[in-house]
From TrEMBL, chains A, B:
Protein known as: DJ-1/PfpI family protein
Gene3D superfamilies attached to this UniProt entry: 3.40.50.880
Species annotation: Morganella morganii subsp. morganii KT
InterPro entries: Class_I_gatase-like, DJ-1/PfpI, INH-QAR
GO biological processes: regulation of DNA-templated transcription
Pfam families: DJ-1_PfpI (PF01965)
Residue ranges occupied by any DJ-1/PfpI domain in the UniProt entry: 35-193
PANTHER family named in the record: ARAC-FAMILY TRANSCRIPTIONAL REGULATOR (PTHR43130), DJ-1_PFPI DOMAIN-CONTAINING PROTEIN (PTHR43130:SF2)
Amino acid sequence: MSDHDYAVETIYGLSTPSIQALIAAGRASQPALLKVGIFVCPGYMPMDINGAQSVFTIAGAEIYFIWKRRELVEGYIGWPTMPTMTFDECPDDLDVLVTGMVPPEVIEDPEVIRFFARAGQKAKYVIGTCYGSLMLGTAGLLKGRRATSNSNVVPMLPDVGAVAVGGSDVVIDDTIYTSGPATGSFDASLLVLKALRGEELAALVELAIEYDPRPPFRTGSPQLAGPEMTAISQSMTAPLNRQYHEAAKRGYARYQQMIQD
Amino acid sequence: MSDHDYAVETIYGLSTPSIQALIAAGRASQPALLKVGIFVCPGYMPMDINGAQSVFTIAGAEIYFIWKRRELVEGYIGWPTMPTMTFDECPDDLDVLVTGMVPPEVIEDPEVIRFFARAGQKAKYVIGTCYGSLMLGTAGLLKGRRATSNSNVVPMLPDVGAVAVGGSDVVIDDTIYTSGPATGSFDASLLVLKALRGEELAALVELAIEYDPRPPFRTGSPQLAGPEMTAISQSMTAPLNRQYHEAAKRGYARYQQMIQD
């Protein structure tokens, strides 16, 4: 038996009959499918959007991977991903717009800033995970809002107009949900699902994916890791963080210029 | 500025100069790059392999997405992924071989079983997350070994030769690490990284990704969710689980036939 005996063509690539049946069963009971747009780009961080893709997939949503063009991009690293929707094709009635860490080149790209400024204002909810908060910031979406990110980025948030909040919890300000990296994407997405469809469904999805983490070393924040390990970690990412800080300031200045024009 | 002003071509698609610099910096200090093979296929579950891809990426590894052919497949759902390595190209000296949930059609595919039986015995460590444990099982890798999976699959594990262990913790038997779904992939990967490179680096990676989860509803296991919610969840996945159970038994019988021939 070759896989072509069981694989079926989808608009996204090859899938299987069992997975297609699973998708159909999950959607049969839906009043209206949730529309979830996930931003991807060259060098995007799969970890930061995976919680959203998983949680909303299990909840029966339609998932769109949005980029300028339908052209293969590399998730950091080695995760070749094909966008399924362009900026121009993005519907105005997204239920959720999601971004995780994207490279500094991208958060100051005027075309991307313009996309987020438009789509982010029209979407019912917006999720920014890790450096993704800077992406929302340079598009003006955090102006005057409470927001969080990873511990290195939190102090940069005021430079994109936000009120910075530290401490690893998801920060909710009206329809904008921001979180730290890694599983912040799961936490924020489950809370957005609660806002959209109620706690009963959201809690059921948390069970369906058996989201019951067991971090082995309990070093997942500067507070948990202590000053010595935190200093080592910060020294490793310092050059990257300087790039992000400069790009965020330039991007935010560009956005402000855009809205004046 | 268009993204083509900053995007660079990689063998995996487009990336950016900042991400390429980040990869180079992470690898500069490595004694020898870890080689991590991640199994993908039509209908594979991105959530179950994301922890491995993230943890080993941050640790500076080379990441290979392995499938029969370099042909776009759909991750469940809407995550179009391009495999970067075929079964034939897979090196014999993998440090880690990883699989998450793959459809029942795949866990009983003789060509896939043959690949896992060979590559799984040669790799230093093997990680199976969620239904991925059944994939390892039908390839004979769990024979006489303690193993776990999601709560629905745990009772099926003896039918692929394993000693079943419940309870959400990562189960380690020699070089085989199995876990439940979702963040089980992070937990198992951090523990394998500890085995390969020591606890100091593994704990530093846990900090670098700020893996400090905040499950919002505390319903991530049958024990946490209680009998009523668990019954609802199980009734929704019962048809799928029957398919998995039958496919696993057929696949394991095929494996046993293979090694007799």
